[in-house]
Structure formats: structure tokens, C-alpha cells
């Protein structure tokens, strides 16, 4: 067990800005989805598990990202607990949950705190995680736990960061797949950070091995036409909200062209990403270009369009994520406001299933 008194709280890495090249301070825009519509639910609608009264979902799962739980950062812990409890109030028995990257700052004490919060708050037994850029951030902290970019990587290797994540997630690689109730879930993850090449910045690096694995893995069960759920922390550039500038470095995924080409062969793919933190009410939360792409905002701190070609923080209390219901002929993706405990009216989507 990690002792959380390694550092005094005052020694927490409260930097105003992350590293340049794709980090938030703390921390062609895409085609609008055609044939994909916003459901006209009100923000006060009862809950996600019974909103379709005439039929029961075949599969349900929340997707959240950018929780940034750090051992010293009380706000991150409070918002994560609030999200778990709000999701439990919607449906106490979802089939799984996905936390799509940026779990913390990759510190042993962050993983210990996250484990503690999961052990003391409700969540599905089956949990899935992806590796975000912040899972590599122990490299920005010196031996005393202070944020110290001058001494980067502070003795930390990329494999150290990966091993710590894999131990927490219970996986063998940063990319893996599983079937849940007959539906295919595929998880991708960045394999390299700045130690290998400073120009990697905060972008996902998907090796040729991982991309070849993805090509073969997508074939499994694809002939039945069921939705295939694919998760990567970083988004494909010039698609969903927040991907046309700033933290995406005009790419976000170094091999984004190869990734998009592979996924384009499967129109039933629904690709979930985080990283930008952009709030769910914005018009490009969901886009469609041969396959569907969805932004999941952030639990710890959503950002928004500043109206001048830039971005700014949304409200300090804001906290958001997604709740997904799968039916035989459609997938409902429902934006959730965890702070106000209500649905985001602008982010209620129905994706048809075409077999």
C-alpha cells in the first residue's frame, strides 16, 4: 500500500500550466452527423435506465474521461466520487464502465488514491481503462515530488509509466479487447512519450504492431453488424469539439491518418475520445465520417469555445461524462451533467444500427 503522506499537501504539483505541446492547465472541424439525431429529452428527464419505456437496453455502460484524480487534489477526488454516485443513481447495475484516460498524473500515490475511491464508492464490477498522456506525467516530477520540468524525465522511463498503468488496470498491454454481452470493446493506448522523441509531445503514438493488431481485431464478429466500441484517450484531429487547434497539435494521434483509414472500413464503429475536455453542449460532440466519433468532455474540469477561435474554462463546478444504452436497432449516447445531476439537452444522441 502506498503511504499518502509521502509529501505534505503543500508540495503537490500545482503548476498553472502543463508542458507545452498538448496539455491543459489544471490543466476542417468535422462533418455534422447525418442520420444521427439529438433526442428531445429535457434536462429534468428521470434517468437513463428507463427513458425508453417500451424496451430494455441490451447493454448499458458509462464512458468518462479526464478524471485527473491526484492524491493531493481534493477537487478531483470530490468530482470523481460525485460522478460515480450520480451514475449509480441513474442505473445501479450497468454492464461495465470505461474511464478513457488521464486517470491522474501517473504517480504511485495517485493510483493508490484512485483505488481507494473505487473501493469506497459504487461502480460496476467490470471496469476498463485506457492510457492517457497524463499517465506518463511522473516524468515531470522530481524525487521530492515537485513539478520540475528542468530535470525531465526525472529518472522515469516510458516503460515505468506503462507498467504502473498496467498493474492498476490489470492488463498486459496498453491495447486490448473484450466482448461484453456479445458486443466488442477495443481499447487503444499510446506506447511512447517524450523520452523517446520530444516531438511526440502529448500525442498518442500507436506502433505499427498496435495498428496491425487493430486491423485483425476489428474483424472479430464484425460480420454481425453490431456496434463496435473503440476507445482512445486522444481524438482524431479535425473531428469532434476541440480538435482543430490547441492541445491536439493538429494531430493528437501521431498516426491519425492510418487510424482513421482503418476505422473507416467499419461503419458500425463508435470511437470514444477525451483529452480536449470540451463540454458536451457544443455542436461537435458527436460527428460522423464513415464511422461515428464522440467526445466525452471531462469529469474534473470541462473547457469550452471562447467564441474567438480559442478556448476557456467552463464553470469551476462543471463535471461531465456519457451514459450509453445499446438496443437492437440503435445506440443512445446521453451526455450527463454530474454537478447538476441532469442530462445535457444538447448531447442526447441516437445512432442507428444498420445490419
From TrEMBL:
SUPFAM superfamilies registered for this protein in UniProt: Metallo-dependent phosphatases
Regions of compositional bias (Polar residues) in chain numbering: 44-56
Location of region: Disordered: 7-56
One of the record's GO molecular function terms: hydrolase activity
Domain Calcineurin-like phosphoesterase, chain residue ranges per copy: 63-278
Entry protein name: Metallophosphoesterase
Amino acid at each position: 500500500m502506498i503511504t499518502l503522506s509521502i509529501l505534505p499537501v503543500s508540495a503537490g504539483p500545482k503548476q498553472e500550466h502543463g508542458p507545452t505541446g498538448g496539455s491543459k492547465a489544471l490543466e476542417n472541424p468535422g462533418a455534422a452527423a447525418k442520420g444521427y439525431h439529438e433526442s428531445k429529452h429535457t434536462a429534468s428527464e428521470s434517468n437513463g435506465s428507463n427513458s425508453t419505456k417500451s424496451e430494455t437496453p441490451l447493454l448499458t455502460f458509462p464512458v468518462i474521461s479526464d478524471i485527473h484524480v491526484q492524491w493531493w487534489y481534493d477537487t478531483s477526488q470530490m468530482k470523481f466520487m460525485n460522478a460515480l454516485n450520480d451514475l449509480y443513481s441513474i442505473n445501479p447495475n450497468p454492464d461495465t464502465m470505461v474511464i478513457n484516460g488521464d486517470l491522474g498524473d501517473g504517480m504511485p500515490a495517485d493510483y493508490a488514491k484512485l483505488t481507494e475511491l473505487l473501493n469506497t464508492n459504487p461502480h460496476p464490477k467490470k471496469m476498463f481503462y485506457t492510457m492517457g498522456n497524463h499517465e506518463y506525467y511522473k516524468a515531470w516530477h522530481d524525487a521530492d515530488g515537485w513539478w520540475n520540468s528542468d530535470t525531465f524525465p526525472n529518472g522515469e522511463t516510458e516503460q515505468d509509466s506503462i507498467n504502473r498503468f498496467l498493474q492498476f488496470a490489470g492488463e498486459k498491454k496498453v491495447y486490448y479487447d473484450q466482448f461484453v454481452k456479445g458486443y466488442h470493446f477495443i481499447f487503444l493506448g499510446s506506447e511512447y512519450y517524450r523520452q523517446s522523441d520530444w516531438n511526440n509531445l502529448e500525442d498518442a503514438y500507436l506502433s505499427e504492431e498496435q495498428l496491425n493488431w487493430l486491423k485483425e481485431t476489428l474483424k472479430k464478429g464484425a460480420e454481425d453488424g453490431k456496434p463496435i466500441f473503440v476507445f482512445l484517450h486522444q481524438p482524431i484531429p479535425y473531428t469532434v469539439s476541440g480538435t482543430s487547434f490547441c492541445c491536439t497539435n493538429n494531430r493528437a494521434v501521431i498516426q491519425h491518418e492510418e487510424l482513421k483509414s482503418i476505422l473507416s472500413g467499419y461503419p458500425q464503429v463508435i470511437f470514444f475520445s477525451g483529452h480536449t475536455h470540451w463540454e458536451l453542449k457544443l455542436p461537435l460532440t458527436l460527428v460522423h465520417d464513415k464511422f461515428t466519433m464522440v467526445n466525452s468532455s471531462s469529469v474534473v474540469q470541462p473547457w469550452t469555445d471562447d467564441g474567438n477561435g480559442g478556448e476557456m474554462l467552463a464553470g469551476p463546478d462543471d463535471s461531465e461524462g456519457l451514459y450509453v444504452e445499446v438496443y437492437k436497432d440503435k445506440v443512445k449516447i446521453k451526455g450527463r451533467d454530474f454537478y447538476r445531476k441532469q442530462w445535457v439537452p444538447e448531447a442526447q444522441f441516437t445512432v442507428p444500427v444498420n445490419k
